[in-house]
Amino acid sequence: MQNITSGATGGIDLDCGMSGRYEFIFTLIPIVYGCNFVIGIVGNSMVVAVIYCYMKLKTVANIFVLNLAISDLTFLITLPMWATFAATGYYWPFGGFLCKASAGLVIFNLYTSIFFLTALSIDRYLAIVHPVQSRRFRTVVYARITCVVIWLFAFVLSVPTALTRDVHNINKPNTTVCGILHSNNINTKMLKELLVAISLMKSLLGFLVPFIIIITCYCLIGRALVGARHIQKSTRCRDDEVLRMLAAAVLAFFLCWVPHQVFHFMEVLTQMWTVRNCAIEEIIDTAMPFTICIAYFNSCVNPIVYGFVGHNFRKNLLRLLRCSPSGHPGPHPSISSKMSALSFHASEALSLTSKNKASSDIK
């Protein structure tokens, strides 16, 4: 649904028609959205409750994971509207304001989620590779400032999407949609350039640049752990488990977002073409709902990857379900996922390695 012309009845005539309109999409997508909504709301709400009630905001990892869960929750509240939109054959009954707000929240969540994942990766890198030097930077104050910057930056990046999304009446078929459409008026060129800029920004800042940073951090972490275990043999199994957890986090991020980003980039290319190709747009519009479902599933995966695999998290979750009062935190009140806990042990190994080298130099 890209190029439009003004119809005689005051509605909009699509150059290529409303492609991607298949009954199985209108049936399957709402079901997937509903599952994502239930799993994501329950999982992220438990993360927020456990961290706030039992684990407290006393570590950098806890603060980032809490904000990541809140980010996912702000997006998940829009899923019932998008499920209704798909179930009714792309009919939007909620008005222009909610159209703009929902579209803005989707992009807002894209940026905040990826930025918080990137911040977590940088924090893991500093904690493991530079455990001593990074102590003055890895503080609660700096973490909270980073979160505020991420929220504000993501909001600024999501505003253009909200402004360019609106409710439109389509002549054939006769329906009302919430979407971005290119109008054939005097501002067509300017609008087209703006939409291409927004799309490229989504691909670069919303995926490519953060993914490069995440991969770089994990490669440096892996190199440091491999170098440390040659000297500290007792940490071999624990280091291997750290690498597996880090690989799982990267893999989940990659698998959830790459399909959508690929078809989104194809959509950007079709926007830049001067000649319309309805066949290609049909493929993109048919595949896009499924890639969006996979991308949205990342909001359900985050609590599993960063919280539920941790022993302390599971213990505190059981306390929450039993309505046990929050007591004093344990000796290491952190998110305590396997990644965080084993990263602490890996930091010890690297510190011991440094000490061993220092002792050798003194001798």
From TrEMBL:
Residues 43-306 form the G-protein coupled receptors family 1 profile domain. GO terms for molecular function: C-C chemokine binding; C-C chemokine receptor activity. InterPro entries: CCR1-9-like (IPR050119), GPCR_Rhodpsn (IPR000276), GPCR_Rhodpsn_7TM (IPR017452). The keyword Transmembrane helix applies. It is found in: Cell membrane. It holds the Pfam family 7tm_1. GO terms for cellular component: external side of plasma membrane. SMART domains: 7TM_GPCR_Srsx. Receptor for angiotensin II, a vasoconstricting peptide, which acts as a key regulator of blood pressure and sodium retention by the kidney. The activated receptor in turn couples to G-alpha proteins G(q) (GNAQ, GNA11, GNA14 or GNA15) and thus activates phospholipase C and increases the cytosolic Ca(2+) concentrations, which in turn triggers cellular responses such as stimulation of protein kinase C. This is Type-1 angiotensin II receptor. It comes from Solea senegalensis (Senegalese sole).
